[in-house]
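Q: I'm building a small set of examples for a reading group on sequence design. Run inverse folding on the following structure and report the sequence directly after it, with nothing in between.
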């Protein structure tokens, strides 16, 4: 059995987001969903702490079901939904994205920020499709190569960390192969990596490096986390998150 060092959870708990993203990107992606019903039904897969769930609630009068398989995120988001007085139309469910407990054709929109990679881009496109109504939309963000021939340091890091990473053209082709029409695709700005994700993460790492200054194993985990951030600082033009917006035939 693989043992995950508990410091890993200490690094990642209670951060505003669990991946790059921001309100501007969510709003821009949402602006491409034309001709939605007045009160559409949305599914937010892999919602994590749920910042984008609450942002979506500001963008639509519809209902949103957010899903994550990590109970602490579900509990935390549930509290925020109550506090924001959104519980009449936003709910959160602890469930597995590989086996989503919903009826075929139940949703107008499937949303997933930084989480489709868990099931796999192609498998997510094909498996979640059945939950959409005809003419329904899928909007997902996915780590993507932005330029050819990345330097060796960045290529080898991601070859180990996320070997399934593809170019934008490859992902767009996969969208069409899975029976969707491409609506739009755009890279997230670098600020979407820093403001609510890497900057708070970096502060947390510094704090924990002081706390665990004599614990070699913990320091190794923290060092790996810092390496990923440093890599992005140096090589952000070679890879990034891209928002893909796709539509099923009506
Ligand atoms: C990189 S985070 C993105 C979270 C959030 N969308 C955000 O941008 O802050 C991926 C999320 O997927 C969730 N997750 C992992 N495996 C899952 C599964 N099998 N089913 C549902 N959610 C899962 C994790 O708990 C985590 O919250």
């Amino acid at each position: 059995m693989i043992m995950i060092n508990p410091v890993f959870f200490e690094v990642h708990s209670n951060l505003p987001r669990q991946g790059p993203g921001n309100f501007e990107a969510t709003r821009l992606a949402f602006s491409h969903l034309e001709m939605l019903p007045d009160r559409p039904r949305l599914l937010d897969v892999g919602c994590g702490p749920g910042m984008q769930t609450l942002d979506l609630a500001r963008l639509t009068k519809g209902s949103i079901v957010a899903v994550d398989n990590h109970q602490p995120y579900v509990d935390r988001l549930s509290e925020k939904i109550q506090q924001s007085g959104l519980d009449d139309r936003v709910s959160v469910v602890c469930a597995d994205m590989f086996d989503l407990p919903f009826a075929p054709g139940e949703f107008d929109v499937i949303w997933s920020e930084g989480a489709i990679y868990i099931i796999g881009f192609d498998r997510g496109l094909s498996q979640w499709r059945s939950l959409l109504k005809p003419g329904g939309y899928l909007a997902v963000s996915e780590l993507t190569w932005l330029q050819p021939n990345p330097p060796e340091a960045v290529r080898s890091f991601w070859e180990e960390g996320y070997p399934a990473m593809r170019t934008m053209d490859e992902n767009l082709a996969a969208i069409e192969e899975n029976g969707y029409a491409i609506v739009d695709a755009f890279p997230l700005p670098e600020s979407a990596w820093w403001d609510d994700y890497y900057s708070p993460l970096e502060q947390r790492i510094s704090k924990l490096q002081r706390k665990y200054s004599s614990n070699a194993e913990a320091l190794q985990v923290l060092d790996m986390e810092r390496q990923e951030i440093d890599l992005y600082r140096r090589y952000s033009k070679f890879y990034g998150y891209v928002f893909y917006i796709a539509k099923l035939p009506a």
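Strands lie at 41-45, 63-68, 90-94, 107-113, 132-145, 166-167, 181-187, 239-247.
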